[in-house]
Amino acid sequence: MSVLxxxxxxxxxxxxxxxxxxxxxxxLGLAIGPLGGLVDPDALLGEQLFPFVSIAVAxxxxxxxxxxxxxxxxxTGRQLWRLMTVGILATWVLITALGVWxxxxxxxxxxLLGAILVVTGPTVALPLLQHVRPERRIGALVKWEGxxxxxxxxxxxxxxxxxxxxxxxxxxxxVSLAIALVAGVGIGGFGAWFVGLALKRHWxxxxxxxxxxxxxxxxxxxxxxxxxxxxxxxxxxVMGIGLANQRDLDIEHVLEFGENLRVVLIxxxxxxLGARVQLADLALLGPASLAFVALIVxxxxxxxxxxxxxxxxxxWREKAFLGIMAxxxxxxxxxxxxxxxxxxxxxxxxxxxxxxxxxxxxxxTVSVCGLAARPLALGLGLASEKNDGFLVLGAHxxxxxxxxxxxxxxxxxxxxxxxxxxxxxAEAAGIPAHHASIRSxxxxxxxALEGIGHFVxxxxxxxxxxxxxxxxxxxxxxANCFQLAATARDDETSRLDDxxxxxxxxxxxxxxxxxxxxxxxxxxxxxxxxxxxxxxSDLLEQHGDGAVPLFCVKRTGAVQVFGSxxxxxxxxxxxxxxxxxxxxxxxxxRASAA
Length: 594
Description:
Elements: H1 2-17, H2 21-35, H3 41-45, H4 49-66, H5 70-75, H6 78-103, H7 107-116, H8 122-132, H9 136-169, H10 173-200, H11 209-227, H12 232-244, H13 252-276, H14 279-308, H15 316-322, H16 330-345, H17 354-379, E1 389-393, H18 397-408, E2 413-417, H19 420-428, E3 433-435, H20 441-445, E4 452-457, H21 462-476, E5 481-484, E6 503-505, H22 512-520, E7 524-529, H23 536-543, E8 547-553, E9 559-561, E10 575-580, H24 583-593
Parallel strand pairs: 1-2, 1-4, 2-3, 4-5, 5-6
Antiparallel strand pairs: 7-10, 8-9, 8-10
């Protein structure tokens, strides 16, 4: 339990430090294992170590399969299919050759190592994409390559393992592979059909969906292993893909359950695997391992990308960015550790080199991508310098006025509205705007959001604002999604600020109705530069309750939002955007108050 808790804590610390969690987990595992001697996984779990790793890997692969939708893969075009075919084959062949030539591995083990390292883990690539925010097409290629590579690489590695074990046992590798394919695909496909039927027919209460689907996947894993050794991983991967691609089947809540479980499993798994690495194994690698990793980063990946995309008209800048974006992640490490345990039992003595080699590749590729991806994207013109822009739900007059003020400060703004008249008015004013439903997949997957780092819901419907903000929290982060304060209802004695689904924009009293009332009365967003002689307090004193602070643009260009739980502290040199009532309205209001 302490290992699982430490694993989740390490992932939280990585989030706070803006580091890929896998790097911190591996380093921490090495620290508590071979370096510190605090945890010995073999002594801690004994004979249960292999079953724990097996089940954890199966659950992670099943969750990865759930995230792979064939329709979305088709929509990304020929570039992705080339990367999935030519790119994987080139990577596999080259890494196999390097394993034999540089490391001195046997051909069978080198083939297995190459199959494991064709994956580019989405658990590492997707957070990096959120940090880099490259252009839409290149971001989509990196995203779906990582998602598709996980199950494909895992299946390839399983097939190689089956071939190795069958050859070692003296049986026909081809017969063994055929049995493994039939058992894995058959059991996984049947499991996907049966579970999908159970969900569609409502044979299970909603509260049991996540747990029941996971147990069904693990049952398929055990059943497939019972038919043929180690084809359970193939079964759970096929089952996840099958569930994700059934028509009229909503599995978002199941996927959320799987993601939560994955966080716990990944933390504990990586700490145990890192702790199990022996310093003697690292010493065995020697300088040759550094050359091996360097060639993977500097030669294998760029060669695979350029070979895959030849003749498709992909600009060289995008090829160069793709050539560096290949971080290995969870699946590579987990599968390598699982197979190393298995192969050692079957007498493959070089199998002990698999884990340290894969861990070294993970640390290197994640570090290179983490450090170089954003500077490279900026240098190639594939990303914006700042991600302080705003995606605004609503293009009504008040939203357009706010957008014009932010655009005047050099802040990127994109409006989305389902009202064609509002969109036409925004486009006439020179404001980037799109006619679409904020709930459509197109907005999140295809709309160009480079330079955008905030979501703001400004429509009159409180539920639409909140649900849209929830939808974009995975992209922008919970801290950067805002909605207007909800309007109090007749059967309630207080405002619904506590029930807001996102951070409340501007303040709890500023509902859409209140802001619209002020806007109709003549209030407009005004930009003011603060100085030593005219500070924030002076502005509030001058306008009284006629001023509503909206945004603070710092001298550095960073944009801060005024909200009910966040009140920026403007300083001289900063620029404020405030909703300010006109002079006549202020005089009339003061006179009525007197």
